[in-house]
Amino acid sequence: MTNNLFENYKLVRQHTAALTASLSAEDCCVQSMPEASPTKWHLAHTTWFFETFVLEAFEPHFAPFNAAFRVLFNSYYNAVGDKHPRPQRGLLTRPALDEVLRYRSDVDARMRTLLAAQPDNAALQQLVELGLHHEQQHQELMLTDIKHLFSRNPLFPAYAAPGRQASDPVVVHWQPFEGGLVQIGYDGGGFCFDNEKPRHSVYLQPFELATRLVSNADYAAFIAAGGYTEPAYWLAEGWDWCKAQGRGHPLYWHWQGNAWHEFTLHGLVPLDHHAPVLHVSYFEAEAYARWAGVRLPTEAEWECAAARLENNKKSASSAYVESASSYYPCSIQASDMGQLLGVAWQWTQSSYAPYPGFHAPVGAVGEYNGKFMVNQYVLRGGSCITPAGHVRISYRNFFPSSACWQFSGIRLARDA
Amino acid sequence: MTNNLFENYKLVRQHTAALTASLSAEDCCVQSMPEASPTKWHLAHTTWFFETFVLEAFEPHFAPFNAAFRVLFNSYYNAVGDKHPRPQRGLLTRPALDEVLRYRSDVDARMRTLLAAQPDNAALQQLVELGLHHEQQHQELMLTDIKHLFSRNPLFPAYAAPGRQASDPVVVHWQPFEGGLVQIGYDGGGFCFDNEKPRHSVYLQPFELATRLVSNADYAAFIAAGGYTEPAYWLAEGWDWCKAQGRGHPLYWHWQGNAWHEFTLHGLVPLDHHAPVLHVSYFEAEAYARWAGVRLPTEAEWECAAARLENNKKSASSAYVESASSYYPCSIQASDMGQLLGVAWQWTQSSYAPYPGFHAPVGAVGEYNGKFMVNQYVLRGGSCITPAGHVRISYRNFFPSSACWQFSGIRLARDA
Amino acid sequence: MTNNLFENYKLVRQHTAALTASLSAEDCCVQSMPEASPTKWHLAHTTWFFETFVLEAFEPHFAPFNAAFRVLFNSYYNAVGDKHPRPQRGLLTRPALDEVLRYRSDVDARMRTLLAAQPDNAALQQLVELGLHHEQQHQELMLTDIKHLFSRNPLFPAYAAPGRQASDPVVVHWQPFEGGLVQIGYDGGGFCFDNEKPRHSVYLQPFELATRLVSNADYAAFIAAGGYTEPAYWLAEGWDWCKAQGRGHPLYWHWQGNAWHEFTLHGLVPLDHHAPVLHVSYFEAEAYARWAGVRLPTEAEWECAAARLENNKKSASSAYVESASSYYPCSIQASDMGQLLGVAWQWTQSSYAPYPGFHAPVGAVGEYNGKFMVNQYVLRGGSCITPAGHVRISYRNFFPSSACWQFSGIRLARDA
Amino acid sequence: MTNNLFENYKLVRQHTAALTASLSAEDCCVQSMPEASPTKWHLAHTTWFFETFVLEAFEPHFAPFNAAFRVLFNSYYNAVGDKHPRPQRGLLTRPALDEVLRYRSDVDARMRTLLAAQPDNAALQQLVELGLHHEQQHQELMLTDIKHLFSRNPLFPAYAAPGRQASDPVVVHWQPFEGGLVQIGYDGGGFCFDNEKPRHSVYLQPFELATRLVSNADYAAFIAAGGYTEPAYWLAEGWDWCKAQGRGHPLYWHWQGNAWHEFTLHGLVPLDHHAPVLHVSYFEAEAYARWAGVRLPTEAEWECAAARLENNKKSASSAYVESASSYYPCSIQASDMGQLLGVAWQWTQSSYAPYPGFHAPVGAVGEYNGKFMVNQYVLRGGSCITPAGHVRISYRNFFPSSACWQFSGIRLARDA
User: Fold this and answer.
1) Residue B266 in contact with residue B391, Cβ under 8 Å?
2) What is the CA radius of gyration of chain C?
3) Nearest CA in chain D to A72
4) What Rg, from alpha-carbon coordinates, does chain D have?
5) Do A415 and B232 touch (CB under 8 A)?
6) What are D65-88's pLDDT values in tens digits?
7) How far is residue B131's CA from residue B9's CA, in Å, rounded to a whole number?
């Protein structure tokens, strides 16, 4: 099993490096806003995670690769000590990208040795697994952050070559669910984050979910109907946000030559009308739903629906694999409940809160999730840039209601 | 019944005026922060509510007292039209306080006529009742806002003469509750706000509530134990708030002559150690609970507990009546579940969200509650300054997690 | 002479009180922006000045009227001790206006006694004279600050009844001056501020001044010609200011019913086209001059011109007396150099700096002028609301380049 | 002469490139604050200057290297069109550094051709000369900006290898000057900026200048004497700045291991006590002078003194040549008026204003200096990192009073 673990370690780590193949050292260094981090910082921080939480704990005669990195690449773990301020991550032209890549190689080599030397250390294995899922989270963030950086450049650089085709239209239906006393939260044998536990009972009223995500064409209709000019559609704080930002369309939309365009990781392209709308904030998602006369699902509704569909046909999990070659949502498959997993993160109306009986682990690792459980909203489902194998129906992503640089879309719900 | 309604109208309106008896025109005019409003504005806005939603709708040959007031005293109803900006409410030295009092008299007289003329108009009566509960909410806000204003004055003016005695210590216990499938939300025959409905089922794990609120002495122990210097006790956003504000104690505490003092509506006085701690933010309440190794209740837990106690002994409702002569929490009564109602608003860990099946009423009145259901936390129980008759166990108060100028305290909970 | 001094004291102090006759306690309490102060604060601070710098220094057995006032009404004198923060002056609903008026009476009575008891104390007399000129400065500030407060009220209250008539057009000429080595600075026997000294030599190139101020009609032509949309007319920082403020006209202009109106102390009235433009910032004055192909005068040019005209005909000083009954610039008199004194403060291109040999007095009074000599521009001439007797050709007023709530206008100059 | 001009062009352009030899592409890309620009941007903008103002005007069949660069690398020339926002210069990871270097080569080649083809075009030559002085200004800014960037990195990278020795102490004297009617402004035959003209008469009182700059040891004594805690030493705005910034020492000083250290382009080193203090704001320079009981010179005093010394002995100009190998002020030479040129920019008390008779050139080049003549203070003398040949006694540098990332120091003056 240790063997398999290191194989998995190698695969994940190599995938991280592969994601940087088209980027220059300059691209990897710059930070475009406080919420986003430079690619180089992601490369270093994910390595810091293994060095600090695994090597420092288990390696005999541990010595850090570079003592200064302990502070420079600590994201938010107060128990580890000082942290370089988040908004200043982009000022670190040194260490150079090459030096960070050496840091990665060094830690990789030591991880190989450590895992070989302690093949039966369950605590070690558990932390390595956490580190790998942590790194997969950062793989997605690397893409959302570089997309944001490139979006701020008037030259609109493309991260990847074009390749996808326009999506076909798909009719939307309402899929009913019975509700009642259901169980949510992870209960499988494999890995999950602490915030997915404990599995527990929730009582749901009967409800219905839309069978596909809101499309760009749907959202354009909202705009055309005065969506951004009529306060009645908005939460009060959402309307204030909208006015303060001067927002009139999703983050990466541009009106050019009398038509909507969209900045993607493949560059600036004409809007794909039948693809799911992306990069909307919670405020926008909620306003769209209100305009449409319906609402967003709760996270319990979403998970209940996803679990039932998983059981019915095990095909859903394969749906999002094929998006691997593109950094844009794949077309909708003919299914009774399309685009549930691996297409776009779906805002729920649930505030991010601890499940009943939740306890954060002891120590620095306990800072992973618990301390963020306030003023954020849960997103479910994974996106087309979420790494394969990192999507679970019990997975709880979370962002503030104003965030829109993630691949976040809209699934509608309504009372039955 | 109309007769009773106008009697009630008169009582509520007179109570509002009575609350201003000790204030000068200057006191009534100034705004101490954007979140707070001048007393004069409260006096006018509550009157505007009746003029706009009742008289304008039902009075034959309606003509406004002053057409400009429609904009000046509109709080946030977009459907009514323009609004004077909230942070500029304190700039309105005109209309003078006397003019606003004339406005109140004028509307009162027209309300009397209207109610007498349409004794069987149920829609009218429903709106009047809403207006009265609205006015009661503003009675409490008038007190919290004037307290904030006076707290910013180095002379620390007293709103009311001193009178209360120091509280006695009370031992705290844990009261167990079984959980299971319970019902929350209003189902009585009288008035409630739209956000208290519909009554619905919620599934609860077994839990325990503390039999009294956290006291000032309890909270002082948290401070002495480094509560404000150790990030491990705090939500990440709470810790940032704490540092950004330079916060080291509750809003109105002052360290003077080697002892804690507290600014109250009775002036600056030595801290009453065994009274409930007040004016803490959600962040502080959550940090205190985390430090104490427990947690805050959910609003469903709180309501479930309150409902059971109400049924067991009907004495609870009388507990908070006697606080009317003081603007400080009364002493704890010997009871198995003290300080539940009418002592201090109790932060719950529940984000303010619509109940399943919630629908906001059509029209401007629909803006009353629904549009604020994001990034706020629910408080329960009412406070010592909540008007008598305005406390309900299904009542949902809500404020942002950083708010601390309300009479907000801490009730602890834990898993059974 | 002491007798005369107290007579003068009485006149000045009574004039201050008289200026508040049309204001309510509410009007006197509110602060409309950090740069402006409430009327009540002006009433108290000018009294504080006499109490702190005169009574405390010379009164036997000095005891303060209210010890707290020493801090509350200290404007900026660090040598006196703590200061209540400037942006919070409007929070002081206590002491009440009545209490501040008692403070004034009390200090007035003690001043009468003191001056009678020490008739030959030159140091005392000098400080009293400074205090009176200080109070006159605040008389003007009271008017500019109440004008700003009323301008923020959508009801546009009038401070005084209307009364003035529209101005007649006056043709503008260029008046030449020879330049050469001239003397500027005060050298008379009476009172002047420390910043007007020492009188010293300055070398000037030949120059010309416009014979009247820029009128509202002139300025409207600048706007109509795209003055606020063409960056070429503006200093870089002025252009940034203009865009950040969304400024498109002078502070108190309003476009209503297809015509320019102006908010004045007499209420909102149609623009008086041939009256001098008022309430422009340095940036706007400089932009206007640049657009007109000329420039603003230096303060030395202005004073040199004013001195020559004073000598030629002693009529100039009487020009501004007649404006006493109005709070708006009087019409232009037929003269070779009209509107020099007592009409509108005239921006010069001179940064506020110490004259060669300037030394601030020792002690707290030394903080009066010297410490403000950075990043401000000098204005000359006095305005229609400057108290009679408070205008001198050597008088140096100063404000930041963005200030426009003073009665500031534009005098053009050009190289000969 | 054209031949000489292109030789000069080549030398200046090569020197710019040489300054980047020790920097990585990452170092060249990042912007550390809105006031500073990335090295890559400096490399491109100086090239843009030649392409836009020279090639576009004079090259037959002009075609831009890259049309997008016209906007991307326009600093502030409104007459040229749109500008990429200054605070976002650091987001341009594309074009890559290599591409910008190709841009430089391309423009250099075209400049060679153009100058060879039009050997007698005086207008062309004049613009090229302006472009070269412009590039020299940016050579200095490249160093101050990279120093600022590196100072924000906790690793404190060194731009250049160490090399300098500690300075020797030098006694300071007061050098008297007579004053009277003097001439300032450029009148030589060579190049000068428009703001140095016209040469004109100024009348000066007798004055004295210190014979050397204020040293680090001098400034440390100011700090030790409570310089940063006593408001009496400060301009009011300076004191506010000081408190708002939490400033207690010059920008790049660090207190480590019980001793002052200084971040330099050679890394973090112990403070060189007898070297001139650097990186002080105008506020700090003024406060130091006030504490020392003297004042800062005016720019006319400074230039008058420098001119007299230049005439007396022509050795001064050679003093600053030898600093070329170091990026730190060279030691003080034994002279009657040391450190006047090429050591540290010296704050004067003169606000940056047009000389009498100043007229900005017509067209975009007229935006070079004139539009910045507000709210800035003049610095004189050049610094140890000012390019050789770019120092003139009539040279007027200017920065806001809060700026301290330039090599700015303090020369004291006093009345005779």
Assistant:
1) no
2) 22
3) D154
4) 22
5) no
6) 999 999 999 999 999 999 999 999
7) 9
Interface confidence, given as ipTM, is: 0.95
pLDDT in tens, C282-335: 999 999 999 999 999 999 999 999 999 877 755 444 334 334 456 877 555 545
Residues of chain C where predicted confidence (pLDDT) is lower than 50: 1, 315-324, 334, 336
Q: Between the CA of residue D385 and those of A239, D144, D273, D334, what are the distances in Å?
A: 52, 9, 20, 21
Q: Is C71 helix (H, G, I), strand (E, B) or coil?
A: helix
Cβ-contact D404, D201 below 8 angstroms: no
User: Do at least 3 CB pairs under 8 Å connect C with D?
Assistant: yes
Give per-residue burial for A119-158: e unless 16+ CB within 10 Å, then b: eeeeebbebbebbbbbbbbbbbbbbbbbbbbbbbbeebbb
Mark out chain A residues that contact chain B at CB-CB < 8 A: 76, 78-79, 181, 200-205, 231-232, 234-239, 282-283, 286, 295, 349-351, 353-354, 356-357, 371-375, 401, 415
Confidence class of residue D189 from pLDDT cuts 50, 70 and 90? confident
Beta-carbon contacts of A248 under 8 Å, excluding residues fewer than 6 positions away, are: A223, A228
SS3 A295: strand
Edge-to-edge strand order for the sheet containing C345-351? Answer: C397-399, C377-380, C345-351, C408-409
Cβ contacts of residue A381 below 8 Å, gap of 6+? A302, A306, A340, A341, A342, A343, A344, A345, A346, A391, A411
CB contact under 8 A, A374 and B282: yes
From D362's Cα to the closest Cα of chain C, the distance in A is 11
Residue with tokens 């300071």: D172
Q: In this complex, do A26 and D93 lie within 8 Å of one another by their Cβ atoms? A: yes
Helix (H, G, I), strand (E, B) or coil at A12: helix
D152–A26 CB contact, under 8 Å: no
Cα C19 from Cα C265, distance rounded (Å): 12
**Which residues in chain B are closer than 8 Å to A374, comparing Cβ atoms?**
235, 237-238, 282-283, 286, 401
- Going by the DSSP 8-state scheme, the letter that residue C107 receives in this structure is H
CA distance C166 to chain D (A): 36
Number of inter-chain CB pairs under 8 A, A vs D: 76
Q: Please write the tens of the pLDDT for every residue from A30-69.
A: 999 999 999 999 999 999 999 999 999 999 999 999 999 9
Alpha carbon of B371: minimum distance to chain A alpha carbons (Å): 4
Q: Which two tokens stand for residue C14?
A: 């009574």
Q: Which residues of A touch D28 (CB under 8 A)?
A: 26
Collect all residues of chain B within an 8 Å Cβ-Cβ radius of residue C87: none
Judging contacts by C-beta atoms under 8 Å, the chain C residues touching residue B145 are: none
Instruction: Residue A278: name the closest of A206, A393, A119, A385 by CA.
Output: A385
Q: D351 vs C351: CB contact, 8 Å cut-off?
A: yes
What's the whole-model pTM score?
A: 0.95
What one-letter code names the amino acid at C272? D
Residue type, C344: A
Q: Decide if D353 and C350 are in contact by the 8 Å CB cutoff.
A: yes
Is D375–C373 a contact, with Cβ atoms under 8 angstroms apart? Answer: no
CA C49 vs CA C54, C98, C108, D107: distances in Å: 8, 19, 12, 67
**Cβ contact, residue pair B282, A237, below 8 Å:** no
Query: Is the confidence at residue D337, as pLDDT, over 80?
Result: no
